[in-house]
Specification:
Elements: E1 3-4, E2 9-10, E3 15-16, E4 27-29, E5 43-47, E6 50-51, E7 58-59, E8 70-74, E9 88-97, E10 107-116, E11 118-124, E12 127-131, E13 145-150, E14 159-168, E15 184-192, E16 203-204, E17 213-222, E18 230-236, E19 246-255, E20 260-262, E21 267-270, E22 275-282, E23 288-299, E24 305-317, E25 326-330, E26 335-339, E27 347-351, E28 369-372, E29 376-380, E30 387-391, H1 399-405, E31 408-412, E32 423-427, H2 435-458
Parallel strand pairs: 17-24, 25-32
Antiparallel strand pairs: 1-15, 2-3, 4-9, 5-8, 6-7, 8-15, 9-14, 10-13, 10-15, 11-12, 11-14, 16-18, 18-22, 19-21, 19-23, 20-22, 23-24, 25-26, 26-30, 27-29, 27-31, 28-29
Length: 459
């Protein structure tokens, strides 16, 4: 801990101050008093729990704030009576000196506030650290509001200012004039920061050794499958001394990051000897070979610059489920055969967005309703059927191109069952000859060569 900034807390003695004492760690400015030169600032006075003449305000001990006391205001350092009545915004300011500390990791810890009559915001060095949004309105002084940790990344070397803003608003009804609307504030918190480091940070993908490049491969998976995420860690290696926190400033992505992703995100600091866990994810919705790279840029308060690289890879293949009908495409001819496998086909719908079908080549296989358009091939019947629907696709498509071409790819296997996508199977564009054909062709080549050689000799 660098300093306790709780209201009414005496840092030199480590105890709470007595009621009616002037609080030296806070200065307060309010409406018409932003320039203390012509008009004196308010003096914050420590107040024990008390009840004012105003029946709407009772300043009670907050169960969640035992280490703080109320601050009420006076115009005179020696005057303990509350005399502030002006409506508007009040600023309660305290300071903290971070000389000798790692200011990049400083923050306000476990902040709890309450106010009469509306807490507004926390500002560190002129930058908003917390805003009570939506505006809370008039808050009872008996309610404590836990805010938590705020301000990380807003502190600087040397002296820092911390401002708490409070609205002083008029009460409704009998007190609409604001005559009894005083302002008061209570906060409980500490400012935390590690001591200034003597050794640079060292980011690594391993908690015990220096690993700057990490390759993660999901292998080959089926389309539409759900491969388990691959877990990995980022660590700041501990050295023999006071090591700086490491900061992840940026993550630069390249490659197939839509398919191979991670929950990596910039962070403001990781202590030496600590690590953070992350996941790499693989979207298998489209066939293909995928590779992605993530370049991580690190720094620390000593000015150290470091880069780590995460490489992700994986392959998505079309699958052949024996219980799902197949769409068998011949890349050499463009023919499409619909095979039921262990199921049946009573209807199908194939659609594309580029008018790539050849409807004139379509052959119906179901005795029912048929649609044959450049953008749509469909059939529906009660009796199942299967077979070739003709040379209806362009030739030469790869698995990925076929998958991308079919914007709709559905088959109906039975009445009442959900539509499912066909298993897509692509046959090679060049037919593979049978072994006997290969032997005959080889003999023919030998004979031809012999004939040509004999012909040359006879010339």
């Amino acid at each position: 801990m660098v300093r306790n900034i709780s209201t009414g807390y005496d840092n030199p003695t480590g105890t709470l101050m007595s009621g009616s004492e002037f609080e030296p760690d806070y200065e307060v400015m309010g409406p018409q008093r932003w320039d203390p030169t012509p008009v004196r600032p308010f003096y914050p006075v420590v107040a024990d729990d008390f009840h004012l003449g105003d029946p709407h305000v009772t300043y009670l001990d907050q169960a969640g704030m035992p280490g703080a006391k109320w601050l009420v205001l006076s115009h005179d350092e020696d005057e303990v009576l509350v005399t502030s009545r002006e409506l508007g915004l009040y600023r309660y300011r305290t300071t903290v000196d971070l000389t000798g500390y790692d200011y990049s990791q400083a923050y306000i810890r476990d902040l709890i506030v309450t106010a009469d009559n509306a807490f507004d915001s926390v500002v560190v060095n002129g930058e908003l650290a917390h805003d009570a949004d939506p505006f809370p309105g008039v808050q009872q002084a008996v309610v404590a509001f836990p805010i938590g940790d705020v301000g990380l990344g807003l502190f600087q070397d040397g002296v820092n200012t911390i401002d708490f803003f409070v609205h002083n608003a008029a009460y409704a009804g009998d007190f609409a004039s604001g005559a009894f609307s005083i302002t008061a504030f209570r906060a409980s918190a500490t400012v935390e920061a590690p001591v200034f480091p003597t050794l640079p940070s060292n980011a690594s993908f391993n908690a015990v050794s220096d690993v700057n490049v990490l390759n993660l491969d999901f292998g080959t998976v089926g389309i539409g499958s759900s491969p388990a995420p691959i877990n990995f860690s980022l660590a700041n290696l501990l050295d023999a001394g006071t090591t700086a926190h490491v900061v992840l400033d940026a993550v630069t992505e390249s490659g197939d990051t839509a398919e191979l992703s991670t929950d990596l995100a910039p962070f403001l600091g990781l202590a030496a000897g600590s690590s953070l866990d992350y996941e790499a994810l693989f979207d298998t919705g489209r066939p293909g070979n995928y590779n992605a790279s993530y370049e991580l840029s690190f720094s620390d308060v000593l000015g150290t610059a470091q880069t780590l690289t995460l490489n992700l890879s994986g392959q998505v293949q079309l699958t052949d489920d024996p219980d799902i009908p197949d769409l068998i495409y011949n890349a050499a001819t463009g023919e499409v055969i619909l095979d039921p496998d262990n199921s049946a086909i009573i209807g199908y719908s194939l659609q594309n967005a580029t008018n790539s079908f050849l409807p004139g080549n379509h052959t119906p296989i179901l005795a029912g309703v048929t649609t044959a358009l450049t953008s749509q091939l469909e059939e529906a019947a009660l009796a199942p059927g299967s077979g070739s629907i003709g040379l209806v696709l362009p030739t030469g498509l790869t698995e990925i191109e076929l998958f991308d071409l079919l914007t709709v790819n559905q088959v109906s296997r039975s009445l009442g069952s959900p539509l499912v996508p066909f298993d897509l199977i692509v046959l090679g564009g060049t037919p593979v000859p049978e072994p006997s054909t290969v032997v005959l062709a080889a003999l023919g080549l030998v004979s031809l060569a012999f004939f040509r050689r004999r012909r040359r000799r006879s010339i």
